[in-house]
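Researcher: Structure for this, please.
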Amino acid sequence: MKPGRQYNENDLDIILDGKENPLLLVLDGVTDPHNLGACLRNADAAGVCAVIVPKDKSAQLNATARK
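Model: Predicted structure, token format:
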């Protein structure tokens, strides 16, 4: 399995292109990988187009979050 590509703010226009009323999840202060994983699973179930997280002082997308 290859790691998924992580996009940045410059890619947001491409991700949202053609989507009417896109749903975004913006996370701030999520430092626990278990909580990040739960947020991502719920975002997927809700049909979120993109998840926006800060680069610094946030949980990393590691094996614990992916579990």
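Researcher: Any notable elements?
Model: Residues 1 and 25 are 25 Å apart (CA to CA). Helices lie at 12-16, 33-46, 63-66.
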